[in-house]
Amino acid sequence: MQHAGGEPLPPAGDGLGPIPAAPGWAAPAPRPAGPPAVPGPPPAHFPPAPAAPAPPAPQATVVADPLQAPVAVLLIGPAGAGKTTVARHWADTRRVPTAHISLDDVREWVRAGFADPQSGWNDHSEAQYRLARRTCGFAARNFIANGISCIIDDAVFPDRPSVGLGGWQRHIGPGLLPVVLLPGLEVVLERNAERTGNRRLGDEEVARIHGRMAGWYGAGLPIIDNSQQDVATTARLLDETVTRALAASSGW
What we know:
Blueprint: E1 72-76, H1 83-93, E2 98-102, H2 103-107, H3 123-145, E3 149-154, H4 165-172, E4 176-181, H5 185-193, H6 203-213, E5 223-224, H7 231-249
Parallel strand pairs: 1-3, 1-4, 2-3, 4-5
């Protein structure tokens, strides 16, 4: 390296000795050494924390009385069998919370554009029946999920399993309990004659429906013949049927 005049600068050192200090500069006095370090206490040794006890194994939820578990009952029968009256009385008199879901009531929620099957069974009446069944099935699942039993009444035919009993099982689930209410034809005709509005059918239609309902005999479903029983007695027979079914499903 060169300075401004072009002459080379002297090297910083030749490796043979220290570089002389500039004139007027004195090295600072050495700082006195401090006192020797005093050794501190040895590090403390803590015993390891005991392992936390394992959480207890989850216990299965035990129902105090399986016979009081919520249940969904499908009360099947022809027009005039007394399904709605019996279902309402059974729901009113149970010792556990129970709801009555009337398919006819739900179907008649449709006011404008209501497709009355008595005016002729067609695509519109079929669609409204299917819609009402799905609505009732949703309501039943909602009640069961909240600990409330329910009973639905419907005229389900044994010769139409896909849209009848099978449809209800799809809507509600395998826990559905179907019970058939089937009095004699004379009783059905008499009770139907007391009905009013679009709930009343012609005698020929009632007889035709009753004949199709007879197919439930031999199907394995519990059948209650309430020809000689009043509403309270029929509801008691229904309760006994439901109790037996619950006891069988719970392994009692």
